[in-house]
Design brief:
With 397 residues, the chain is α/β, with parallel strands linked by helices. The chain has helices spanning 6-9, 15-28, 47-58, 72-86, 100-112, 127-135, 155-161, 184-196, 225-230, 255-268, 274-285, 289-310, 331-336, 342-353, 377-396; strands at 34-35, 95-98, 118-123, 139-144, 166-172, 200-204, 231-236, 249-252, 325-329, 355-356, 358-359, 368-372. α9 links the parallel β6 (200-204) and β7 (231-236). It is globular and about 65 Å long. It binds 4'-deoxy-4'-aminopyridoxal-5'-phosphate and glutamic acid (GLU).
C-alpha cells in the first residue's frame, strides 16, 4: 500500500472539475448532454491575445525561465490595470503573477497560515477555498449566508465567529456560486471591522468585470488606505478575457506577503508559462471591447434564462448580479421526484434529463445546485425543457 499523507487525504476532488470531466466522458461516449457545469466562458480567447503568445514564441522570448514573480511588463500592466479601474496605487514588488488565481490563493494561504489558524469562509463558497485552507494547516470557519439575505453576511454575523485565532476572511464578490455582489457600504463595514481586528481580507475579484443590470463591483481595497493595507487582491485573466486554459492569475498587496509568495514560487513552480504571460500582457494592455461584449452577452442570456429557471417546479432562485452562475434551491424538486438528496437528483438529471449541473455540497449548501449559463440561449432553453420534462415524468412515477 502506498502511503498517502494525512494532509492530502483530507482534501476532496473539485466537484466542479469532476462533474465537468464526467460530462466530457459521457459526451465522448456519444451521449447528448447539455453541460451547465464548469465555470468558464464559452468564448474563444480574442485573436490579438493568442497572436501575442505566438509572436513571443516566434521571437524566442519564452525559451527560458522568467522571473518567479512573472515578467516585469506584465507585473507593471497589472499595477496599471488596478490604477486605471480602481484608482489604486501599487508598487511592482506588491504583485506576483501565478498559474491562475487558484494558485495565487493556494500560495497565499500557505504564506498566511500556521497550524490551527482560522479563516472565515462565507458559504456558499467556491469549492477550492476550504481545501486550500486545510492544505495550509488552517481551519475553516464557515459562516452561512442565506438566500433571504441575498447570500450576504453582516459584520454582526462575522463578529460572532471571530476568535483570537482568526487570521483571514475570504470575500468573493461577485460571488461564485451565487452571483451576489457586496455594495460599497457593506464592503466598507466589513473592511473597517477587519482593520479593527487585524484580519487579512482575501479579496477574490475574479468576476469583477462580469456585473449585470447596472450592478457594479468595487474593490474593497479602494475604500480606504487602511483597508487597502489589510487586503490581498486575487484576480486573473481567466474569466475576463476567456483565458481559463492559459492559467494566469495574480495577487496584489502587502509586499512582505507577496515577497513570501514569490519565495514559495521559487521552490514550487519557478514561473508561470512564458507564452501565457505574454498573452496576459496583451490582454491587459490591448483594447477592452471584448470584455464589454462578453459581459453584454451574459447579461442578455441571464435575462432570457432566469425566468425560465423560475418556472421550473420545485426550483427557488435569486437573480444573480454578476458572474455566470445561478445557485438554485432544488430540495423540493428532488423530494417531489423521489430523490433522497440533491446530489442524487443531480446525478439522475445527468443520466436521465441529460442536463448536467453541479450539486451544491461542494459549495457548502447541499440543498442547492449551481447552474452555469455559459451556453447560448437556445441551449439554455432546451436545458430547461429537459429538466421540466424530467421532473414531470418522475413526479408521475
Ligand atoms: N476564484 C473563483 C471564485 C473562481 O470561480 C475561480 C475558478 N475559475 C478561481 C478563483 C480560479 O480561477 P483561475 O485559476 O482560472 O484563475
Ligand atoms: N472556477 C470554475 C468553477 O467554479 C472552474 C473550475 C474550478 O477551478 O473549480 O467551475
Amino acid at each position: 500500500m502506498v502511503k498517502i499523507s494525512k494532509r492530502i487525504a483530507q482534501v476532496a476532488e473539485s466537484p466542479t472539475l469532476a462533474t465537468s470531466a464526467k460530462v466530457k466522458e459521457l459526451k465522448a461516449q456519444g451521449h447528448d448532454i447539455i453541460s451547465l457545469t464548469v465555470g468558464e466562458p464559452d468564448f474563444e480567447t480574442p485573436k490579438q491575445i493568442r497572436d501575442a503568445a505566438i509572436e513571443a514564441i516566434s521571437q524566442n522570448k519564452v525559451n527560458h525561465y522568467t522571473p518567479a514573480a512573472g515578467i516585469l511588463p506584465l507585473r507593471q500592466a497589472i499595477v496599471d490595470y488596478y490604477q486605471k479601474y480602481e484608482g489604486l496605487d501599487y508598487q511592482i514588488n506588491q504583485v506576483i503573477v501565478t498559474e491562475g488565481a487558484k494558485n495565487a490563493l493556494y500560495s497565499l494561504f500557505q504564506v498566511l497560515l500556521d497550524e490551527g489558524d482560522e479563516v472565515m469562509i462565507l458559504a456558499p463558497y467556491w469549492v477550492s477555498y476550504t481545501e486550500q485552507v486545510k492544505l495550509a494547516g488552517g481551519v475553516n470557519v464557515i459562516i452561512e449566508a442565506e438566500m433571504e439575505n441575498q447570500f450576504k453576511v453582516t459584520v454582526d454575523e462575522l463578529e460572532k465567529h471571530r476568535t483570537d485565532k482568526t487570521v483571514a476572511i475570504v470575500l468573493n464578490s461577485p460571488n461564485n456560486p451565487t452571483g451576489s455582489i457586496y455594495s460599497k457600504e457593506e464592503l466598507t463595514a466589513i473592511g473597517n471591522w477587519a482593520v479593527e481586528h487585524d484580519i487579512v481580507i482575501v479579496a477574490d475579484e475574479i468576476y469583477a468585470k462580469l456585473c449585470y443590470n447596472g450592478n457594479e463591483a468595487v474593490s474593497i481595497a479602494s475604500l480606504s488606505e487602511e483597508i487597502k493595507k489589510q487586503t490581498i487582491i486575487i484576480n486573473g485573466v481567466s474569466k475576463t478575457y476567456a483565458m481559463t486554459g492559459w492559467r494566469i492569475g495574480y495577487a496584489l498587496g502587502n509586499k512582505e506577503v507577496i515577497g513570501k509568495m514569490i519565495d514559495l514560487a521559487n521552490h514550487s513552480t519557478s514561473n508561470p508559462a512564458g507564452p501565457s504571460q505574454y498573452a496576459a500582457l496583451a490582454a491587459l494592455e490591448g483594447e477592452q471591447d471584448f470584455v464589454e461584449k462578453m459581459r453584454q452577452t451574459y447579461e442578455k442570456r441571464l435575462s432570457h434564462f432566469f425566468p425560465l429557471l423560475e418556472s421550473i417546479p420545485g426550483f427557488r432562485v435569486l437573480k444573480p448580479q454578476g458572474a455566470f452562475y445561478v445557485f438554485a434551491h432544488v430540495k423540493e424538486a428532488a423530494e417531489q421526484t423521489g430523490y433522497q438528496s440533491v446530489s442524487d437528483f443531480s446525478l439522475a438529471m445527468i443520466e436521465e434529463a441529460k442536463v448536467a449541473v453541479v450539486s451544491g455540497d461542494g459549495f457548502g449548501f447541499p440543498d442547492y445546485v449551481r447552474i452555469s449559463y455559459t451556453q447560448d440561449e437556445e441551449t439554455l432553453t432546451e436545458a430547461v425543457n429537459r429538466i421540466k420534462a424530467f421532473i414531470e415524468k418522475k413526479t408521475k412515477e
